[in-house]
User: Fold this.
Amino acid sequence: MKEKLKAVFGYGQFRGNQEAIIKNIMKGRNTFVIMPTGAGKSLCYQLPAIASEGTAIVISPLIALMKNQVDQLNALGIKAHFLNSTLSKSEINRVKKSTLSGELKLLYVAPESLTKVENLEFLKKSNISFVAIDEAHCISEWGHDFRPEYRKIKNIIGQLGNLPIIALTATATPKVQLDIQKNLQMEEADLFKSSFNRENLYYEVRPKKQIKKQLVKYVKARKGKSGIVYCLSRKKVEEIAELLQVNDVKAAPYHAGLDASVRMKNQDAFLNEDVDVIVATIAFGMGIDKPDVRFVVHYDTPKSLEGYYQETGRAGRDGLEGDCLMFYSYNDIIKLEKFNKDKPVTERDNAKVLLQEMSSYAESSVCRRIQLLHYFGESLEESCGFCDNCRHPKEEFEGKEYVEIAIKAVQQSNERFGITHLVNLIRGSENQYIQSYNHDKLEVYGQGKDKEIPFWSSVIRQALLSGLLEKDIENIGVLKVAQKGQKFLEAPYSITLFQDHEFSTEGEEEESERDALPQNAYDPNLFALLKDLRRKVAKMKNLPPYVLFQDPSLEEMATVYPTTRDELLQVVGVGMGKANKFGKPFLDAIKKYVEENDITTAADVVIKSSVNKSKSKIVIIQQIDRKVNLEEISEMNKMSMDDLLNEIEHICYSGTKLNLDYYIDEILDEERQDDVYDYFMSAENDSLDEALDELGDEDYSEEDIRLMRIKFLSEIAN
Ligand code: ADP
Ligand code: ZN
Assistant:
C-alpha cells in the first residue's frame, strides 16, 4: 500500500487514520469514516479501489464534485469516470463497457442515477469491489444538508449483493452519526473518527459594525491570496463583489441566480487564479477543493455551526495558512428565524436549536476551537492559543456556585428540558410551562433571580463544554447530567468561567492583527516563479492549477531544487503520473533558476523504475496535431472508428482542446457544419440521440454529429 501511495499519489506517508481505514476496507469490513474537510478522505477509498479487483462505486451528491475528482484521478493516471445525467448515450456506453471489462477502477454516480433501472441492471453484471458513500451526512435529516434520495441508497446497493460499504463525512454531530449508521444498517461498522481539529485554521468573530470598511481592509491585507466571502443573499453577493472590485480587489460573484455559464466562468477564474476572491452564497464550494484558499469570511452569520464549520473548512486544505472570520450580529439570527416561520413545527424547532448554537458560539468568549470540537462530540482539554478568544481573553470569574445551580436545575427537572426552560426555572420565571410542570416547587426555582438570562445561558453552555452536562442524542435540545456532573455535585470544585462578549453594546473592537507569520523555509523567488509557471501551464492545459501540483509540492521544489525526473519523484505529492504529465516545464524552470543563481543542489539521486503507461491517447493527440486522417489513425492504432471517436471524446471531455477542422472540413460543407454547431449552441444538453432526432438522421450520420460535438466542445467548453 505504501508503495502505491508513493508511486501513484506521490505521498511518502499516510495521514492520520488513512492506513487503518484502508486496511479495514481491504478486509471487506463495513467502515465509517468521520474526518474533517481537507484531512484526506478521498484517498481512503481511492487507494483500495486501485488495489482491488473490479470497480469501486463512489456515490457523491454533486455532479461538479464528481468531475473534479475524476479529473484529478485521471491526472494521476487512474482509470475513473462518472455516470450521471450530463453524459451522452455513447459516453454512457463507453463507461459501462470499461466497467464491465473491469478496467475502470472508480465509478462515480449520483444517487439519482443509481436508482435508474438500466444502471442497476448493468451494475448487477459488473464486478464491484465495494461501495463508497461520500458526504454521508446527506442521509440525515438532522444534518445541514439533507437529501432524501440518499435514504434510498442502502436498498439499492443491497440488491447488488453483499458489498462492503465505506461511508464518509466531514460533519457529523453524534446525532447525525447515529442516524447514518441506522439508515445504512451498519451499526456494526468499524468507526474511524479523526479529530476535527484543523490546527492551521484561525477562527475569529467580529461584531457587524462598519463591516464594509472592515471587510475591505481585511481582504486588502491579504492581497493576491485566494479567499471566499460568504453572504446569505444573492443581492448581498452582488453588492459585496462590486464593493471589492471598486477597491481594486480581483473579485467575482457566485450564486444560483447567475447564468450557469457566468457561474462556471467565475468559478474557473477563481480556480485559475485570475480572480482572487469569490463572493458567494453557500451554493459555492461544495464542488471544488481548491487547496490553497487562504481565508474564508462569513459576511452574514451562518445558519448552523455545521454549515459554518464546513465552509471554514475550505480554507487551508493544504495545511498552510487559513484565516476564518465571521461577522456576527444578533439581528442576523432574528432574520434567519423569520425565514423559518413557514416550516413545519419540528423542522422549525430544529432550525431554532441550530441557530441558538450559532449565536452562543459567537457570543461566547471560550476558546473557539474548544467550542467547535465539542459541538462535534470531541473534547479538547486545553485552550488552543490560536483563535481570537485565546489571543484576547475576556474577564474570568469563579463559577463553582453557578455551575452547581445549573446542574441541579437539569437534575431536578428530570433531564427533560432545554436551555430556555432551564434558565426560566433558575431565574424563577412565572410562565405557564413552569407552572404546568410544577417546577416552581423545585429547590432550584428562583435561585438565580439576580442574574440576567444571557448570564445563565452562558453558564449552562460552559457546563456543557466542560463535560458536566451533556446533550441527549435522541432528543434534540434536551440536556442531561453527565457522570462528571454527578461527581461535581457530590464534591463541588472551583471552576473558571468566562464572561460572554456583549456584541450589542460593545463598541468597535480593535482590529486583531495576526502575529507575523513564520519565515518561509523555501526559496520565495523560486516559489513565486513556479507558481506563475503553474498558472500558465494550467491555463494551456485548461486545468485548474492545483490539478498539476499543489502548493506543498511547489514549496518543496523551492526547497530541494529537483532538476531530474527522479528527484522530482521524491517531492511530496508527485507520483509517476504527474511527473510524466507535468514535470518537464517545472524541471526546466528549476534547472534554469539553479544555473542562473549558482545554487548547489544536494538532493541525492534515487533511481526508480518507470512504468510504461498506455500511450494511446498521447499518440492520438499527436496524430491529430499532425492532421492525420481519422481513418488512418484508427487503422494505425488498430481500433475501430467508433473506439477512436470514444477516445477522442474522452480526451476532449477531460479538458484537452482538439482541432479536427482539417478532417471535418472534408466531410461536411460549411453550411451543414453551421447547422449542427448552432444546434449544440442552443441545445439543452449534448445528447447524441436528441441531436440526431432534431437534425434528422437522414441528413447527418452519427459520426458527423459526434465530430461536430467534439469541435463544439473543444471550442466552447474547453
Ligand atoms: P477531504 O475529501 O477529506 O476534504 P481530500 O481527500 O480532498 O480531503 O484531501 C485533502 C488534501 O490532502 C488533498 O490535497 C490531498 O491530495 C492531500 N492528501 C491526502 N492524503 C495525503 C497524504 N497521505 N499525504 C499528503 N497529502 C495528502
Ligand atoms: Zn482557542
